[in-house]
Amino acid sequence: MAKILIIDDDAQLCETMQSLTSRLNHECQSAQTLHEGLQALKNDDYDLVFLDVRLPDGNGLDVLQDIKGARSQPEVVILTGQGDPDGAELAIQRGVWDYLIKPSPIKQTKLTLTRALTYREEKQNKSNVVALNLENVIGRSAKMKACFDLIAQGAPSDSNVLITGETGTGKELFARTFHNNSPRAKGPFVVVDCASLTESLVESTLFGHKKGAFTGAQEDRDGLVKLAHGGTLFLDEIGELPLSIQKAFLRVLQERRFRPVGETKEVQSDFRLIAATNKDLAALVESGEFRQDLLFRLKTMHLDLPPLRERPEDIKPLAMYFLDKMCEEHKLPTKGYDADFFATLAAYGWPGNVRELFNVLERAFVAAGEEQTLYAMHLPQDIRIKVTKATLRQSCQSNSSKSQGAMEAAKDLTSGPSGPQDGVFPSPLPPLKEFRALMERRYLEHLIRMTEADIKEILEISGLSRSHFYAMVKKHGITF
C-alpha cells in the first residue's frame, strides 16, 4: 500500500482522487494550499504527490524541487487545469513523472498512478546504495541534491557528460566529482581549455604529432587525448572549439581512435569524455557555429548547474566552508560571524556565482586580519554599496507603488459620469453588504489591470497576503 498526497484547492477533485486511490488499496490525503502540502511532507512520508500548478498561495512549479527534496523523495505528477507547454517543459526538466490536464480521464489517471508507483518500487528495491565522494562540493539546497542524484546515477557509467552553467558555478569541480566517483578514479583527469587553443595548433595539442610533422616539431609528442587513456578527458569551454576541428573530434568520440599529425597509423585511447560550457550550444547550432551531431554526442547525460542566486540557502554553508579553510591554511583560530555579515551576503545577486563569492570572502578575510569576528564592514565596499543601493531602491519603489496605487484606485472608484461622488453609488442603491462586495471586486479588477497581473506588485500595493489575495479572487470569480 502506497501513501499519496494531493495538493489541490479543488475539493471535488480531491474527493474523486481519494475515492480512486482507496479502490486501489492506497492511502490518500489532501492539502488545499502549498503551505499545507509542504507541511504534510515534513510530517509524514509519501510515495506520490499529485500537484496542481495554480494554488491560492502560489505556483506549484515554484516549489517542485522542495517537494521532490522532501525526506521521502516522492514521485510527482502535475495535475492542472491549464495546459502550458512551457510549464510542462519546466516540470519535466525538474523531474516530474507526468503532466496531466484536468479533467483527466480516470483511466489515464489510474494508469499514470500505477506506473509511477511501480517505477518508485523498482527504484527503491535496488540493493546498491551509492556513497558519493563529494570532496569540496558544498550544497544543501534541493537543486544541488538533484545534481548529486545525477552524479550518483551517471558516474559509474562511461557515458559522455555535458555540464552547463554560468561562469563560476563550479563546472570543473563537478567534472572532477564525476571522475572521482567513477571506475576511472585512479586514472588521469586531463583538462583541455578549448578557449586557449589556437586554431593552428589545436589538432597537434589534442592528437599529438610526429617529429618533423611541421616547423618546430622537434620530437614526437603525445596529445591530450592520448594522455587521458584510462581516465577522463575534460573539455572545458567546448563552445570555443573551432568548427574546423569539430568534425575530426566527432569521429574520435565515436571510435576512440585518431591519427596524430604526421603519423600514418591510427592510435587508440580509452577515455571518458566530460565537456562543459557557459554558452547555449543549441543557439550555436542554429547559427552554424557548432555541429549538431557533435552536440548529440556530447549530451548523453546533461548536468545543468544552478546559479548561486537560485540556491541562496547554500550561501552560508559555502561561506563557512571557505573561511574555515582559510583559517586552517593561515593557522588562525576559527572566526565568528556577525548576523549582518551573512545578511549582506544573502542580499547580493552574485553574478559571478561561487567563484565571485570565494573571491569576496578572501578579501574580507584579509581585511579582518587577526580579528576574531567577521562583520559586514569587512566585506568589499563595492558589494556593500550595491546591496545598500538595491535595498533603498526597492524600498522607494515599494512606497511609491503603494502611494500611487492608492491614489489611482481611489480616483477610479470615486469617478463616474455624474461626478466624483455620484460615480461611487450604483442606482438603485444596493444594501451595504452588496455594495461592499461590488467595491471590493472593482478594486481587485482595477488593481490587476493596473499592475498587469504582477502578483508581487499587487501584494505590495494592496497589503494583502498571497493566500488572502487568491481567496478574494476566487470568491469574486475573477480570472486573469
From TrEMBL:
Coiled coil: none
Superkingdom of origin: Bacteria
Any Pfam family matching the protein: Sigma54_activat
Residue numbers carrying 4-aspartylphosphate: D52
Transmembrane segments: none
Keywords in alphabetical order: ATP-binding, DNA-binding, Nucleotide-binding, Phosphoprotein, Transcription, Transcription regulation
Record protein name field: Two component, sigma54 specific, transcriptional regulator, Fis family
Organism: Desulfohalobium retbaense (strain ATCC 49708 / DSM 5692 / JCM 16813 / HR100)
